[in-house]
Amino acid sequence: MTTYSAPRILVFAGSAREQSYNKRLARLAAERVEQAGGLATFIDLRDYPLPLYDGDLENHEGLPANARSLQALLAEHQGLLLASPEYNGFITPLMKNTLDWMSRSDGKQSGLALFADRVAAVVSTSPGAFGGMRSLALLRQLLGNLGVTVLPNPLAIPRAAQAFSEAGELEDESQRDRLDALCRRLVTILAKLHAAEPSNGR
């Protein structure tokens, strides 16, 4: 009988704002991952500040310490679940800059190797009527360029200001169901891909 180890999934939002709607969504997704049998690690990018990517800075000083910390986190996880705000129809500079630094070599190993064979799900919410869907198309493209397999049917939640209850839960049942389904699918696929691997637990 095949055994499935609980997959580890790194979760973060492309916003440093304390009251970010996408942070709320990322936290909810982390909870859903746990309920589906995965091991979720939610991080706040506010805790990992990075300079704007600069090749000269990299050449002179190497990778910033926070970039190395993020790479170490990625190495410990088989999956990603990213919540993407939308700035003028694009992903945020924070999301792009974070992934750019994470993809760089630490002098021993290419950062791209850390992304290879990872599986990701992407979600978004915004105050507008499209829910950040335009940013998700670009995030999917960027992750694909890094070697990540991105699940289809991403979740975009419109009218973010009305989408969450005071407790931080999604108000709409159909949106809750779609988030549940996406997180279950990510956990199930990763568990099957890494079947019989020993679980590291907590």
Structural key phrases:
202 residues, alpha/beta, Rossmann fold, six-stranded parallel β-sheet, 6 strands, FMN
Compressed to H and E, one letter per element, the order equals: EHEHHEHHEHEEHH
Strand residue percentage: 5-15%
Report the oligomer: single chain
CATH class: Alpha Beta
Can you tell me the overall shape? globular
Q: Let me know the largest β-sheet.
A: 6 strands, parallel
Number of strand segments: 6
Rg from alpha-carbon coordinates: 17 Å
Find the CATH superfamily: Flavodoxin domain
Show unreliable segments: none
Q: Work out the helicity level.
A: 40-55%
Protein name: NAD(P)H-dependent oxidoreductase
Cofactor: FMN
Organism: Billgrantia kenyensis
Keywords: Flavoprotein, FMN
Q: Describe it for me?
A:
With 202 residues, this protein is of the alpha/beta class. It has a single domain, classed as Rossmann fold. 43% of the residues lie in helices and 13% in strands. The protein contains eight helices and six strands, in the order E-H-E-H-H-E-H-H-E-H-E-E-H-H. Strands 1, 2, 3, 4, 5 and 6 form a six-stranded parallel β-sheet that branches. Helix 6 (133-145) links the parallel strand 4 and strand 5 (149-150). Helix 1 (21-35) crosses helix 8. The longest helix has 21 residues, at 173-193. The radius of gyration is 17 Å and the shape is globular. The two termini are 24 Å apart. The model has no long low-confidence stretch (mean pLDDT 92). Its cofactor is FMN. GO terms for molecular function: FMN binding; oxidoreductase activity.
